[in-house]
Amino acid sequence: MSAVLNGSVVVDGVVYPAGTEATDELVRKVTNPALWDGLEGGEQGGSVQASVNVMDSPEVQQFAAQASARLEELQTRAAELAEENEALRQEVESLKSGAADGDGDGDEGAYAGLDIDQLKAEIDSRNEGRKDEAKLSKRGGKDTLIGFLVADDAAQQD
Question: Rounded distance, CA 140 to CA 84, Å?
Answer without folding.
Answer: 15
